[in-house]
Design a protein that fits this description.
Number of domains of chain A: 1
Strand content of chain B: over 45%
Order of helices and strands of chain A: EEEEEEEEEEE
CATH superfamily of chain B: Immunoglobulins
Oligomer: heterodimer
Order of helices and strands of chain B: EEEEEEEEEE
Distance between the termini of chain A: 41 Å
CATH topology of chain A: Immunoglobulin-like
Helix content of chain B: under 10%
Number of helices of chain B: 0
Number of strands of chain A: 11
Largest interface: A-B, 26 and 27 residues
CATH superfamily of chain A: Immunoglobulins
Chain lengths: 112, 116
């Protein structure tokens, strides 16, 4: 069956460290993958999109990698800050129709 | 508008009643999505409208759920004969492209539905 899996346990790290979140998928061959941030009581907000022919993409302190062989994307936040505390969701279009399917999200807690 | 607008922000209803949830997408966006998010869970896809194409209803959990999009803009998600397990946050999102692959989604703040 088709699945998108993210770390179900919350990730707790110290301020200033690098946070690494994982998104694994099975039985999909997505042309791209997206990452979103969700704060409590709010809708998700788009962060980054990475295409299948891109190994890595960066935006400020954020870095995303996409390994189509491992069927995995890694999301890194360098020099993490307490304000980075949120739930991070990965999403992909498994049918290449624009229909985005989301993982269950990983909650990040950055402690000062 | 400035963003995706959903109403009401909160809805409390009694089991067995029908509810309607409204979504106003960003002006000019041709794709519109509905997702459901239960407490502490990820986003569950419900339905996807893309331009004038027939909607992808593959995520609707039962025939009590239906959605319309009038004039390619406003959408209404209707839940008939609500059940307690329907309690969740219902999120609407829109995206720009005429063929909306690799387009980012813009989400509303959701409607918190509570079925008593």
């Amino acid at each position: 069956s088709q699945k998108i899996e993210q770390n179900s346990e919350a990730l707790n790290i110290q301020e200033g460290k690098t946070a690494t979140l994982t998104c694994n998928y099975t039985n999909y061959s997505p042309a791209y993958l997206q990452w979103y941030r969700q704060d409590p009581g709010r809708g998700p907000v788009f962060l980054l999109l990475i295409r299948e022919n891109e190994k890595e993409k960066r935006k400020e302190r954020l870095k995303v990698t996409f390994d189509t062989t491992l069927k995995q994307s890694l999301f890194h936040i360098t020099a993490s800050q307490p304000a980075d505390s949120a739930t991070y969701l990965c999403a992909l279009d498994g049918s290449n129709t624009g229909k985005l399917i989301f993982g269950q999200g990983t909650t990040l807690q950055v402690k000062p | 508008g400035a963003g995706v607008s959903q109403s009401p922000s909160n809805k409390v209803t009694e089991k067995g009643k029908d509810v309607e949830l409204r979504c106003d997408p960003i002006s000019g966006h041709t794709a519109l999505y509905w997702y459901r998010q239960s407490l502490g869970q990820g986003l569950e896809f419900l339905i996807y409208f893309q331009g004038n194409s027939a909607p992808d209803k593959s995520g609707l959990p039962s025939d009590r759920f239906s959605a319309e999009r009038t004039g390619g803009s406003v959408s209404t998600l209707t839940i008939q004969r609500t059940q307690q397990e329907d309690s969740a946050v219902y999120l609407c999102a829109s995206s720009h492209g005429a063929f909306a692959t690799n387009e980012k989604l813009f989400f509303g703040s959701g409607t918190q539905l509570s079925v008593l």
